[in-house]
Design a protein that fits this description.
With about 280 residues, the protein is an alpha/beta fold. About 50% of the residues lie in helices and about 10% in strands. The chain folds into two domains: about 80 residues, Orthogonal Bundle (Helicase, Ruva Protein, domain 3); about 160 residues, Rossmann fold, CATH 3.40.50.300. Strands 2-3-4-1-5 form a five-stranded parallel beta sheet, sandwiched between helices. It comes from Gimesia panareensis.
Length: about 280
């Protein structure tokens, strides 16, 4: 709704996992290099962690895209809320094994075992990027351990990357025990946040900075350098700037946007009212 006002070709701070908007910061570049190392060195299992919203999912997808040009077969699976049978069915479908909707669990395991055996005989290599492992059902973690054990003993061509947010959970402790490499993705510092905002604006057709330096500093403070929060704040601030016919976004607009996000809106010029009126 505000694209034309700010001379933008698209929403610069969309929360969608669009690789075209991927910002390869020094942190993401290092994480991506380590993920590729997992593939090249055939590490059996690696733990990919970081606070929610730092960009683990899109980094996994960037890794998958890069590996399309390699001998590796790389597959991405989101385990959010999945139990064991759902996870194995999704995996079988992703590997194009043709599971029926009612394929029983033992048969799913046999399909996967046969697939991995064939891959070993042909010297194939498979990297599974498993996202939101800490938000899957406990049975899925059991299945991952079983799959990893099978791969370790019989199918050395299989490598797993387990992505999770919370490292203080019991599941994270179990994942740590079975992993042989840890990859961490931290939040942005102030300079990275500024570069991230301008990168997103540039890709959306705006070469000029729309946020004042004070506004960027406030965004860093409010978001704690988490890209997903930066997106949320900036998107709402651009909407407010459009509503007020501003030339740039200052610190007051950012503070008002943050209050709206936190559920404590200002008593006048509420951004939520602008959204409701559109």
């Amino acid at each position: 709704m505000y694209y034309d006002f700010w001379n933008l070709s698209q929403a610069p701070f969309s929360q969608q996992q669009d690789l075209a908007l991927f910002f390869e910061s020094e942190l993401h570049e290092e994480a991506l290099a380590r993920l590729l190392f997992v593939a090249e060195e055939q590490k059996k299992c690696s733990l990919f962690s970081g606070p929610s919203g730092t960009g683990k999912s899109i980094t996994l997808k960037a890794c998958q895209q890069i590996l399309t040009r390699s001998p590796w077969q790389c597959e991405y699976l989101d385990l959010l809320g999945l139990e064991e049978e759902e996870f194995l069915w999704q995996l079988s479908a992703t590997l194009r094994l043709g599971p029926a909707q009612d394929t029983p669990l033992p048969q799913l395991w046999r399909q996967l075992t046969d697939c991995l055996t064939g891959m070993q005989l042909t010297q194939g290599r498979l990297l599974l990027l498993l996202d939101h492992v800490d938000q899957s059902r406990l049975e899925s973690l059991h299945a991952i351990e079983r799959l990893l054990h099978s791969g370790t003993q019989q199918f050395p061509s299989l490598s797993l990357v387990l992505a999770m947010d919370d490292l203080n959970s019991a599941r994270a402790e179990r994942a740590t025990r079975i992993s042989d490499l840890s990859i961490e993705l931290a939040a942005f510092d102030a300079e990275m946040t500024e570069n991230y905002i301008q990168h997103r604006l540039s890709l959306s057709g705006c070469a000029d900075p729309l946020f004042t330096s004070d506004a960027v500093a406030e965004i860093q403070n409010a978001s704690q350098g988490i890209p997903a929060r930066i997106n949320q704040i900036c998107d709402l601030a651009l909407l407010a700037g459009y509503e007020q016919n501003l030339n740039e976004i200052g610190i007051d607009v950012i503070r008002r946007a943050v209050r709206e996000i936190n559920g404590t809106p200002a008593h006048f010029n509420r951004i939520s009212e602008v959204i409701q009126g559109v």
